[in-house]
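hey so u asked for the seq, here:
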Amino acid sequence: MRARELGIEIGRLAPGPLNSISDVPGVRVGHTTLIEGDGPLRVGDGPVRTGVTVIVPHDGDIWREPLFAGCHRLNGNGELTGLEWIRESGLLGGAIGLTNTHSVGVVHDALIAAAARSRGDDEFWSLPVVGETYDGALNDMNGFHVRPEHVEAALAGASSTVAEGGVGGGTGAICHELKGGIGTASRRLDPSMGGWTLGVLVQANYGRRELLRIDGVPVGRAIGRGELPSAWDQLDSVGRGPARSGADGGSIIVIVATDAPLLPHQCARLAQRPALGLGRMGSFASNSSGDLFLAFASGNRGVSAGGGESDLRLTNTVSMVVDGQIDPLFEATVEATEEAIVNALLAAETMTGRDGITAHALPHDRLREVMERYGRLQAHR
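ran it, structure tokens below
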């Protein structure tokens, strides 16, 4: 079940045919999901509730052909590697990885290894983009269960069909004290607005229950902790952590893709807009939250980073959206971000992890009741 299947329509722009980041031509997503064991936490032995997600940005040689990109930090208690070079050069070179907080290094190394094998270049270097969210409430995060072969499998399995919920890097995610994870959505602009497609993918692992809002409806107040207990309160009950710290903190990684011809500074402007979709959902980007966003644009293909013997050109010829016409892309980003988070919540299934801690799924029937009460439910689709 996704938001529109339930009758929830976010915003006014139309989605693409898949309502996914993969509606942007060439973009593919792969997951490796690791779920093993149950019972008390035994560091190194599990239980395991984690994984890795890989986003392939275009259909060419991703290790040799960069795309224009930009990034934004809403709150920085998190990690999204490679951003300094993106800020400096405006270029994204290669696949993007998402995983848990303590597996960033292995995913980073595995992406470099994949690029090196593909290029066969002894002098090749890479600064890949790898993001993380904390999954230690459900997962044996210090057991380091993500390995290079899991990254390789996610890369090999990348496709236009994007699984959502508790999969890949979002396997152990908790969002608004409910089960969270991976979500995606897209918008296709009318030809009068350029006709471009924009897609968003989130790894959602943030937020307090009472602040959760969906299409403006205070869902978190209606479906409170008395009805569905918070995993963070359970963590406190087994003596593993303070009850509210996880809910107050948490993180979200947002990846925005578009086929519009944007220059790096425009990508950076686009990368600021997920913050507005996140705010609509009820986040205030707390002090201990890692809210990090990246946007890339494939509207200018064949861009050269220069410097190699195989490409000695002095200039690139590029096009750009006129700044005065960029507003529809901003609106699309906000809408798709909000809907992607809702899709993550709706796709996620109840999960029990370490120490018997359970992250409950957002119940579809109760959400339908609440949305209908506020007049925000469209005809069932």
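The domain at 15-38+45-302+319-369 is CATH 3.60.70.12 (L-amino peptidase D-ALA esterase/amidase). The first helix runs from residue 3 to 6.
lmk if thats what u needed
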